[in-house]
Amino acid sequence: MNKTSFLGEFEQMVLLAILRLGDEAYGMSIRAELEDRAGRTVSRSATYITLERLIRKRYLTARMGDPNPQRGGRAKRYFALTDAGREALKVSGRALRNLWVGHESLLDET
Amino acid sequence: MRESASLRSRVARFLLQLAVRDRNVCDGLLGDLEEEYASLSSRTGRLTRQQPPYWLAVLKLSAGFALARLSARNRQPPMTRSAGLPARWNTMVESTWRDVRSGFRGLRRSPAFTAVTILTFALGIGATTAVFSVVNGVLLRPLPLDEPEELVGVWHSAPGWGVGGWMPQSAATYFTYREESRVFEDIGIWNNTQVSVTGLDQPERVTALLVTDGTLPVLGVAPTLGRTFTPQDDSPDAALTVILSHGYWRLRFGGDRDVIGRTLTVDGRSREIIGVTPPGFDFFQIDPAVYLPYRFDRSQVAVFGDLSYPAIGRLRPGVTMEQANADVARMIPLALEKFPGGMSPSDIASVQLGPDVHPLINDVVGNVGATLWIILGTVGIVLLIACANVANLFLVRAEGRRQEVALRTAIGADRRHIARHFFAESVTLAGLGGVVGLGLAYVAIEFFVVQGSQQLPRTTEIAIDPTVLLITAAISVVSGFFFGLFPVLRYGNPNLGTSLKESGRGSGAGRQRQYVRNALVVSQMALALVLVVASGLMIRSFQAMHRVSPGFERPDEVWTANITPTRAEASHPDATAATHEQIVRRIQAIPGVTAAAFTSSITMDGWGSNQGIHVEEFPLAEDQAAPLRRFKWISPGYFETMGNPVLAGRSFSWADVHAKARVVVVTENFARQYWSNPGEALGKRIREGRTQPWREIIGVVGKVHDDGTNQGATAIVYWPPVVEDFWGLDIFARRTMVYAIRSGMVGATGLLDQVRQTVSSVHSTLPLANVQTLEDIYDRSMVRTSFTMVMLAIAAAVALLIGAAGVYGVISYLVSQRVREIGVRMALGARQQDVSRMVLRHGLSVAGVGVAVGLIAAVGLTRLMSTLLFDVSPVDPVTYGVVAIGLTTIAVLASYLPSRRAARVDPIEVLRIE
Question: Which pTM does this prediction carry?
């Protein structure tokens, strides 16, 4: 286990959404994806602040797209996972899966 | 459109950049927002749930980023910074936040200090906020009507008449001003009265407002249902109409919208209901149930002298008060020409009839302005005392932190940093105090509204509104800086060497610091003394008012109630008088009733009218107006019922009434204005007009304070209930009479039921109106004085409490600072009582100076409240003496505890530590 801490639940959700969106991952689409898949409302500031934090932790990179007239002439800011980000997601996912082993059936029974 | 979009994005960008430094992050965010809101507006977007407004979203994002940055910064201090204006702004926000947080931390470490400071300050700011919100609601807020600044009260001044106050309109001046004016958009007159409404469940007496057709439109009042009065309704031969108030319509007609066109029987005459006023409109708290048109017959208005109708007008846009007054002055002679036969030009000249047009709000608010401003001034003083006390606490605290300050300086904090640190702490405290104070103010306003509803107009408008909040916030911040200033000035630039050295030892040095603290306590004592003196003077006024014999005794034993036989029940004045006689005789026969009588106006009920009186022995010149006297019509037995002694002669008998004898009774002060003693007035003759028959004075009764205990005695002329050949009428009798019923059983409901039965045994449809005890009326006349007294007493008590705490704090701190010195003194042979006397002497000297300064200030300031005082001089020596001694005693008591502590100092212990 390296010294990076485990990802928070919301951080994992954001990283997974970006993974799924691929080249089309930018702020608004990420938030929409989270809302669609997770089925809960996601606050705008929480999403963007988490994105910036993940960049600081070097799990994400960002690049600017082309200016877009639909967006008031502003470019989209696209996000992509770094290797460290993939690794962190893997570690967290594995840890969670291990912890989940055997519990799904238990929880379903009740 | 394009421009507005670009402006929007520029402003949004600025807001975001306050918190987000990275340009790309910012652009990405703004672009997302733009896209999202554009897709929302075209309703094709994927995000379909409820979105906050655009600006709220921007603000939330900005705040979210700012908070995230601050908390990240606390966790990981090293952070790279970029230059530029937004960044500098960021730094400022951050460092202020840091200061506030460090302030909080410091305060958490000393909970006692924090609690005392917040509480002290909350008391001051709570009281100020509460009273300011009353002043704001009652005096400062415009009337809730259309264009309220154009609304005026139209009155006259008549200094030559010898009665104070404003003179209202007559029908003649009303018509003249309405027809000839160049300044009024329109003008209307009004007056309130009581009427009987029959034909609904129970016959009842209700308040009615008589108006002309212009009165309601002038106020901009549009009916919820139906229409307002037209000139047609207001003419003498039109069908009778009535407008219902919203409340009465809900109460008696259940809010039935089909009420228009139905009839209502008012004073025995059937009237068509033509409209309902809007909800919430109560004609300045008169709250009439029905509105009736005056229906003056313009061709019959010939008398210019019946000045008894208040008027309101709406000025044309842009007209000033001076222009309005000048125009009325121009029209007064015109009224004489148009309506001759009443007052002559020389009459007008002798009473000096002139215009008095002023903003309507003055009429609505009346004279409570002075009282409220004085109360606001007093709580302002309480706030000052609270600030002085908190400043002192801060000084003491800063004293204990000299070492910390020196340390901060040593590691590089400059004077600005230290100042900011102190200010952050004091402003944070003041802010917290302000919040707690606001809570106190909420409670206090409830109390105010309940206490003041009897005597304060516009109580419904009292609330903590944005203006009040703004003022409270401003006061909190300013006071925060004020009491933060003291430690900054004292310790902002510490002398490193001495501070670090000194603070190790329990030094008694710092004479100058002690001087500042003493000065603060002196000012607290002085201000507290001013307040206590002011409230003492109010208490003395209240006592003086209670000593006044108002013209009646044991008011708690007297019921009063109005009874008005309608035309159907008594058509002729003789019949009216006979009905009243029948009623009063039957009431007298009820077991338990010791006396009963009736009068046109009972003492202090405000229903009396003023008329001119001529005295045979003192004839007036042709061009001299007769001095005004209060007229009342009374039944035999009235003075016995009220408990006012007959000083000379006798009162009326029923024989006088039946014979319509030409006799009157006057009050003592009326008699003394002409003759040296009351007895001399007997047999003298007076009359109400130049051509009327003379009436003989047959009795003189004791003084009556008809305008309230706080006013001088009123000169009253009492007439029998039926008078022949009066004011040009063959026979005159007042229809509405107020009954006074004295009984030891007042308060028992049985008695009142018996009275009701007795009245309806005379006429089954006669209602009993306005039932109250004489004590209620009496208390109401005192309510302003008692209200002011309670307010000032509360303010003074708080001031005294804070002031005493201030003295205690300073003396006790002094003792703790001088422990070493005391120890040495005792080691050298000083006795315990010497030490405690030394401490007490210090307390006494501080208090003495405070009291002396306060006395001088009080002499100056209490003059401002002379209008509120009754029979007490603003420099009443008894009050000043008692307060000075009392305050000094309190100061000595406050010093006593610390002096005991000083006396218990163990010299060996102290010297060992040294």
Answer: 0.61
Of the candidates B625, B155, B619, the one whose C-alpha atom is nearest the C-alpha of residue B349 is: B625
Query: On the CB side of B556, how many CA atoms lie within 13 Å of its CA?
Result: 3
* Residues B398-434: tens digit of each pLDDT: 777 777 777 777 777 777 777 777 788 888 888 888 8
- How far CA B182 is from CA of B112, B200, B215, B546, in Å, comes to 68, 46, 18, 50
For residues B456-490, one letter each, b for 16 or more C-beta atoms within 10 angstroms of the residue's C-beta and e for the rest, the string is bbbbebbebeeebeeebbebbeebbebbbbbbbeb
Q: What is the DSSP string of B726-766?
A: ETTEEEEE-S-EEEEEEETTTT-HHHHHHHHHHHHHH-TT-
Chain A partners within 8 Å of B7 (Cβ): none
* Residue B31 contacts A where some CB pair is shorter than 8 Å: yes
Instruction: List the one residue out of A97, A69, A80, A67 whose CA is nearest residue A15.
Output: A80
Among the partner-chain residues B34, B61, B63, the one whose CB lies closest to the CB of A48 is B61
Separation in Å, CA of A81 to nearest CA in chain B: 17
User: Which tens digit of pLDDT belongs to each residue from B182-194?
Assistant: 999 999 988 877 7
**pLDDT on residue B166:** 66
Write out the H or E segment, with its range, that includes residue B265.
strand B263-266
Pairing of strands B184-198, B241-244: unpaired
Closest-CA residue to B133 (of B298, B376, B477, B417) = B376
Structure tokens given for B356: 């008095």
First to last CA, chain A: 35
B261 versus B906: the higher-pLDDT residue is B261
- Rounded distance, CA B306 to CA B237, Å? 22
> B368 vs chain A: nearest CA distance in angstroms?
53
Residue B114 · residue B104 · CB < 8 Å: no
Contact B31 A62 (CB under 8 A): no
CA distance B723 to B652: 13
Query: Chain A partners of B46 at a C-beta cutoff of 8 Å?
Result: 32, 36
* Nearest-CA distance B83 → chain A (Å): 20
CA–CA separation, B476 vs B438, rounded Å? 11
The pLDDT mean for chain A works out to 84
- Give per-residue pLDDT as tens, B783-826: 767 777 777 787 888 888 887 777 777 777 777 777 777 888 88
The angle at the Cα of B858, spanning B853 to B862, to the nearest 5 degrees, equals 170
Backbone angles phi, psi at B911, to 5 degrees: -70, -30
> Is the torsion defined by CA of B621, B624, B630, B635 positive or negative?
positive
Distance CA B67, CA B81 (A): 17
- If you count DSSP H runs as helices and E runs as strands, how many of each does chain A have, helices first? 5, 2
Give the ipTM of the model, two decimals please: 0.85
